[in-house]
Design a protein that fits this description.
Layout: H1 2-17, H2 27-51, E1 56-62, H3 68-84, E2 88-94, H4 97-105, H5 117-124, E3 133-138, H6 145-158, H7 167-172, E4 174-178, H8 187-206, E5 207-213, H9 227-236, E6 243-247, H10 255-264, E7 271-276, H11 283-289, H12 313-319, H13 338-353, H14 359-363
Parallel strand pairs: 1-2, 1-3, 3-4, 5-6, 5-7
Helix pairs in contact: 1-4, 2-5, 5-6, 8-9
Length: about 375
């Protein structure tokens, strides 16, 4: 029954993500979708109106999560932004409709309402609010598929895609875009490597520190952003050969490939510390990295992509002869690390101090 419930929620989420266009031709369903859209928009409108204190605003856009640890990290990030940017109001949005609806349904945590970026952007343009400057800050790690969605939200808003925003306001409002953590192949990658080494160099002296990123499937590797993981590993290894960066969704960079690179460097045993290379420690961190899923049966069978399915990083490295257990799981998202979070905040400062948004040059990593 619970699976059916979440399937129904997911279907509604798809409608939400598509701007509430009809999922079928049933007029009653269309009315229900329109009603939900109105309810959500009115709720966000009221929130913004009641909390507006400044003439400018920052909208933080995260993919989303349904874990309390992630919510705590997001809340702390909002507060850090309010402190660092006193002339701006700060709000948080989720780009994942599935996460939004599961959060509202109370999966893993007490029910909590989050809303997609278009609701917030529209609320910023409403009568009685009309911020003079809107800064959208991506909380993505790499400039890939999810970052593209952030860009498209801004473009739809700027182009008045739904035709319900004052065109005069849109022609005068200043829009800025803060880029992901690893936007730049040199400065960002090297700075993140430097800060991670400062935090974990002692662990790297004790054993391997393996960072688990998300990655994009090859067919969705927008801007070829997956290369940032390879570049980050290379930058980290200038400090220690015990640093590795793998993913859950990048071809030829699964945990099996991390193991092969470790063994090629002569690391056949010892401790393996695992750390999420994601903005928050959510479902992937708790399950794919540190979970107890274990398909071991006196050996592992790799799928056609070279990955071992239904097995966490913790259990995989354990069975491969390494000391990898609950004690070697570093369960912290990157937003929980102030020096890493500061890099995102630096991108926000750069956006504010830079020119108004130029879609082409602002969105495309070099």
């Amino acid at each position: 029954m619970k699976k059916i419930k979440y399937l129904m929620i997911a279907m509604m989420a798809i409608c939400v993500a598509m701007g509430f266009t009809a999922c079928n031709n049933d007029d009653d369903d269309n009315k229900a979708i329109d009603n939900n859209y109105t309810i959500y928009q009115n709720t966000v409108n009221q929130t913004v109106k009641s909390q507006k204190k400044n003439p400018k605003v920052i909208l933080l856009v995260a993919f989303g999560s349904t874990w309390q640890q992630a919510y705590d990290a997001f809340d702390a990030t909002v507060e850090a932004y309010k402190t660092a940017f006193p002339g701006y109001d700060v709000f948080l949005s989720f780009s994942s409709a599935i996460c939004i609806n599961r959060a509202a349904a109370g999966e893993n945590v007490k029910p909590r309402n989050f809303y997609a970026p278009p609701f917030w952007l529209n609320a910023f343009a409403q009568e009685g609010v009309k911020y003079s400057e809107i800064v959208v800050q991506s909380l993505q790690v790499i400039p890939g598929e999810e970052y593209t969605r952030v860009i498209n939200y801004i473009k739809d808003f700027a182009n008045n895609a739904n035709g319900d925003i004052d065109d005069n306001y849109l022609s005068n409002v200043t829009l800025k875009l803060g880029v992901p953590l690893l936007q730049d192949a040199e400065s960002d990658v090297n700075e993140v490597a430097k800060q991670l080494n400062t935090l974990y160099n002692v662990r790297a002296q004790e054993g391997v520190v393996a960072f688990m990123g998300h990655g994009n499937p090859d067919s969705y590797d927008t801007y070829k952003a997956n290369v940032r993981y390879t570049q980050l590993e290379e930058a980290l290894q200038t400090y220690s050969k015990n640093y590795y960066v793998g993913t859950v969704d990048m071809m030829e960079n699964f945990k099996t490939h991390v193991l092969r690179r470790m063994q090629a460097n002569g690391i056949m045993s010892g401790k393996v510390f695992c750390h999420p290379l994601m903005s928050i420690d959510g479902d992937h961190g708790h399950n794919d990295m540190a979970g107890d899923d274990d398909a071991w049966n006196n050996g592992f069978e790799e799928n056609e992509e070279g990955e071992v399915e239904d097995t966490s990083w913790k259990m995989y490295f354990h069975h491969m002869g390494y000391t990898c257990d609950n004690s070697t799981m570093i369960e912290k998202g990157l937003l929980e690390l102030p020096t890493i979070r500061q890099i995102w905040m630096n991108h926000t400062k750069d956006a504010i101090n830079g020119e108004p948004l130029d879609y082409y040059h602002s969105k495309n990593p070099e």
